[in-house]
Amino acid sequence: MSSSLLLSLSSKPSLRKLALRCQTLRTFSSSSTNPYLLYRVTCCGEKGDEESPGVMTQLHTFDPAKDEHIIVGDKPFPKELVGSSLVGCSHGWGVFLWGQRSILISDFCNPLSFKSKPKFIRLLPRPDLISCQSDLVSGVAMSSSPQEEEDYIVAVKFTGRPVSIYKPSDTKAVHLTMPHNVFDHFEPSKLMHSKRDQRFYMPSSGGHHLWSWDGHESTEPEFHELRFHNLPQFSHSELQLLDSCHRTQHLVESSSGQRFLVKWYVQSIKALGFNCGGTKRFMVFREEEDMNMCYTEDIGDLCIFLGNNEPFCVKASLFPGLNSNSIYFVGEAYGEGYGVYNIATRTPRSFKPKPTTSDSPSGQGFMLPLWAPHWLPPFPL
């Protein structure tokens, strides 16, 4: 097979118990939680009650280090989020859309926000696009959380050509538009912010190029061509399998500044449970030097988290129970499923959560639609 073809492959505890549990979670230090998955938000009562004052919600989370479900209850559903859709997450802050052009960010989905009222920050209106382009989002990223820096930047990739940049100090949003001759290659792309060089990055749908910008209106976006090395050898049947898969590309950066390009291969399936679904393969490329990507099956002590969130990675040894050299993934759009992938053995496995029972007093409740499941990074306690 040609090198061009290879490249194109290219428990439900009470609130008090939860607080006690958080004090014992193993972490970066003694003051952070594990990374975890938020996979469902439900409202108690009947559908329509979310518009009533004081209706309570439950955040359904999963701790992959313990293979354990935790439901956080007693969180009033805020009026600011009525009728909204959760389209992505970065630094533990969700990006919410509602109405025709409204957009905000909030830490509501952080279970530890019960210590104080959730924060809501309205952003400037979404771009005025034809059809429903600004209703569909493929990626979000933030330079930092509002709690870390006042001068943070939010980037949102909408359907088609536009990427919108929001800064709290600006009086208008910056809407970047990709040229007609390249935007098809970036249409479903994810976003990532690099702490190393203070730039946003977006890989092309084929994974051969990157688009980057620093978030300032005066700076022109830059295009980067990736060069691939040490490509793996595949049998004919393996190539046929990968060629039949839907593929997405994700750029992720470690705390030390090491970057990886991850290609995710999925065979769509109709039914989804809490399992690894249609995920068949990941291919990981390590950046050896500027834009030179080398295929690898060893990322050391790191583990990567991919989903409807800005990709991130942590050191597994700092979170006992996490698997090093692995990718934790979640997705429903193409049947990706829920699971963890061993990079060395090239095998996915489903999560095996410990069984729990519902803690809804009435047994009634409904799931909020259009709230995408996503991974949340470690939070300070």
Helix and strand arrangement:
Elements: H1 3-8, H2 15-24, E1 36-44, E2 56-63, E3 68-76, E4 85-90, E5 93-98, E6 102-106, E7 120-122, E8 137-142, E9 154-158, E10 162-166, E11 174-177, E12 192-194, E13 199-203, E14 209-213, E15 222-225, E16 227-229, H3 236-243, E17 246-253, E18 259-266, E19 279-289, E20 292-296, E21 302-306, E22 312-315, E23 326-331, E24 337-342, E25 347-350, E26 365-367, E27 374-376
Parallel strand pairs: 16-20, 21-23
Antiparallel strand pairs: 1-2, 1-26, 1-27, 2-3, 4-5, 5-6, 6-7, 8-9, 9-10, 10-11, 12-13, 13-14, 14-15, 17-18, 18-19, 19-20, 21-22, 23-24, 24-25
Output the structural class: mainly beta
Question: Compute the gyration radius: what is it?
Answer: 20 Å
How many domains? The number is 1
Share in helix: under 10%
Number of strands: 27
Classify the beta-strand content into a percent band: 35-45%
Tally the helices.
3
Q: Mind describing the biggest β-sheet? A: 5 strands, antiparallel
Mean residue pLDDT: 80
Kindly, what is the distance between the CA atoms of the first and last residues, rounded to a whole number of angstroms?
Answer: 52 Å
| Pattern of helices and strands | HHEEEEEEEEEEEEEEEEHEEEEEEEEEEE
Low-confidence stretches: 1-29, 356-362
Given the C-alpha coordinates, what overall shape results?
globular
Protein name: KIB1-4 beta-propeller domain-containing protein
InterPro entries: F-box_BR-signaling, KIB1-4_b-propeller
Domain KIB1-4 beta-propeller: 76-342
Pfam families: Beta-prop_KIB1-4 (PF03478)
